[in-house]
Amino acid sequence: MMILTENLNTLLSCILILTALASVLSLGVKDLRESIAVIVTLIIGIGFLSASSKTVSSAFLIAALLVFLVLILLYKNSASSKNFWWGVAVFSLSIVAAVLYVLTGNVTLLFFSFMVMMPLFPLHGGYVSILSGLPLSLSAFLSLLLPLMGLYGIFSMSISEVFVVNKDSSAATSNLLVVFATAGALYGSLKAVIQKKTPEFAAYAGLALYSILWLGLALNVLGSTSMFVYAVSIGMVTAGVLLIWRVVTVRYGDVRLDTLITRIGGLSKPMPIFGVLVFFIAWAAVGLPPFGLFAGFIEVLMGMSAKLSWHTFVVLFTWLMASWYFIMFLQKVLFGPKKLSFEYKRLKYNEGISLVIVLIILLMLGVGIIKMPSDGVVLTGNDKNTKTEVISWVK
Amino acid sequence: MLLYNPVLIIIAPLLSALINALLGKSQGKIVFRLGLALHVVAVIVALQIIYKVVTVGPQTIDLSFLLGSGSGLFNLVFYIDRLAAVMMVLISIITATIFIFSMNYMREESDYPKFNVLLSFTTAILFCMVSSPNLLLIFIFWQLMSFMLYLLSYQYTDHATMKGAFKTFMTLRFGDIAFLAGIALAYNIYGTLELKEIFSQVPGITTTYSLGPWFTIHANTAITLLIFVGAMSKSAQFPLHIWVRDALYAPTPMHALLHAGIINAGGFLINRLAPLYGSSPATLHVVLVIGLLTVIIGSSMMLVQNNIKRTLGYSTIGQMGFMILECGVGAFALAIFHLIAHGLFKATIFLNCGNIIHKARLEPKFPYLTAKDKDPELESEEDGFSFLTWLTGFVLSLVLPLVILLVAHGALRLPLMESQGALVFLFFSWVTSSRAIMAIYKAQTDTSFSISIKLSILMFITLVVIVFVYLFAVESFTYFLYPDHNEVAAYFHAASLPSFVFDTLIVAVLFYVVFKWSLNYLRAHGRKAKWPSWVSEFRAKLYILLVNKTYTDNIYAWLHHRIIRFANLIEKRYLRFLP
User: Fold this and answer.
1) Domain count, chain A
2) What dihedral do alpha carbons A268, A270, A276, A277 form, nearest 10°?
3) Which residue of chain B has the CA closest to A331?
4) Domain assignment of residue A184, yes or no
5) Within chain B, which residues score under 50 in pLDDT?
6) Is residue A395 part of a domain?
């Protein structure tokens, strides 16, 4: 049984507020509807974190958020038709699952919703449709909020009940999760490499990186601190990528990543401050110190080292692929000759500040200034081989 | 000592990077001079540190307050022992020299401050890396170095440069990931990442991994092999050497930094983990084979280049092969000696190669002037041949292998270090002196008796000096870095080869040396060796293979395309129904 403390709730709420602030700031004052959408989802998110022990309220909030997202998807969809329908279908199922949970109290149904929110193959359609189909500022915030709610839900709602019917079914569920997580890591990595649109690229990169977390959850070897640092960092990185892309599309239209250099040229020279910010976000995204993604990943990997197997190679392969596509993203956005005939526009203050917020959170997570409270969960024991704190899934 | 504080060695270059980043564009020269002054401070502190380390003992820099209680996997504490101090002196001198050189060389560049930032930041990272007492802390700076190598490509607007930079980063990243796998395995086995604690546990580890019914690997071997892949990538070992050529688009001072400093990281890493590597003979033998392959491939590819920078690039690969090979025979300190010597001479060559290119433009045959070029009145090549010099060179090249074989089979005992170590040092003395004697022979343009006598004496002195340097200077250096004689002997013992392998190696090199001298003799007399047709065909094929960089680039390109193609097939055919 795990009990989430107030410290963790407060910390996660602060990070959500700062990320929402970054999203709203990137909009300026023009797009009020998008800002309202960010604030509504933020309120639902904070409500969810506060209602951790009231599972019915949590389920209700999940259903409310997903209904809200489906409505926005239907109203303002720009995802491809396949992603759109997958998103609507998966979210609808998730809403039904949350409602059924309220009626029946079966936690497996709620677990299904969390698998949709923190993307797990093959239920990642919702996550992909949100990131690729919604306006970029909103999707930047949701890229953190949804997975964070998923992970928080797994920890806060006695989800271990899913695994305790008997030992065999627990092992079977764990194995199934390992298979899905492995498939998600490989599928997400390969898809991210070939994406020509940045929102889709960010979505598949997120899927691949969150799959590592799912793998750790399935193997039952991770400590709470490492999980939350890692999950928040992925959310911040994907949010950063989407905010970067918003700066580009607002100025130069909806260009494709592979034609960016030929149409616009490298942006490092004509937009130097933007170049520096993109450079540091890519630095963090590649998984280098001193940023949070590196810190989180190292803790996750060391946790998983307790059960070394082929999973470790899947994790390392995913990490290598992340270096590939994020460094390609950096090159495509920044590096290339400046087009003399092209009219470049400088970065606005509000956009710059929004990217700086993302960077600061990533940096603070990396150097441990934002430190997830290790007493966020009640630990039930240590595996004899495990050097990090281990959370038992069995009551 | 006045104003001695070891933390200055990290702060000085960081401060230089910071002021160049913030004020470089606006304040220009003053900031550059201030940057230089900070690099000079780093040199002074490095010299102070080595003095302190020798006289007092290892020094510690505690910056753990910056990270609070840390993650538990490491503390931000730097530990400067003799190895770290030596590396710090080398790095600080080379980077300060490059900084001075670039003040003139790069002044016309609009992005000159960027260069200073990268140079200073890289210097700070190198200082941190060499003084890290924790495997994860080393890795943190190790992978930052990979990223710096990507950024050191410098010309971000040039497509070819960025393509090369991407290849560099991905090759290094592959090594980083293997290193990381090694760290994960080490954490699993030792339960700590602190080097001291790991080394104390190494002898007691009995864990083995089974990779199938016929293959079992000891945990220490698995860890060292994975970490070695990281060293291979950074030190450009075959087949991870491909990035060196693509990194040659950067400005000359960058090359000097890369080839004299960063690329040596592999040799340093193996030295830092010497007790771990010394516990695994299997890994040392793999290290030896990889080093040997890299020597052969790097040196061979160097011969077919027609561009001075590429020639130097492949020369570096060959030299790195030697450095790794030295580690593979257990001569860890010799590898450090080698990397210092190589770092100094390669930095000098790179910083001078601009002048060479300039002179070559004025004189097309420069620098390959033959005796006939210098004296057009010579009628044939034979006129430039001195039998005395040739004979002296030939005989002197055969002295050492005889000594080596006698020592190897116990017929002769050297009152030096442990016999295995003496053998290794004699072997490298022989290889180096043979090369130097051959270079002296080829430099002869005047065949008069007095000159021939002088050159013969010079050859003899060269041999004596090289043997002296290896047997005494390197021996002293070995005991400077590793004061425990038993430890050194244990490394040599762990790396020792079966005698028939060692003899075969000696005979192969001996055959090559005799063959080369004979060929010189024949050429000088206007004769050509009559090769069987298959040899000629093989040479042609070998040439094509080397010109095409042993097709390793093509293999990597093929792999890259296959991954992209597979990903496209997944998206468009196999799993097209999925989002």
Assistant:
1) 1
2) -110
3) B162
4) yes
5) none
6) no
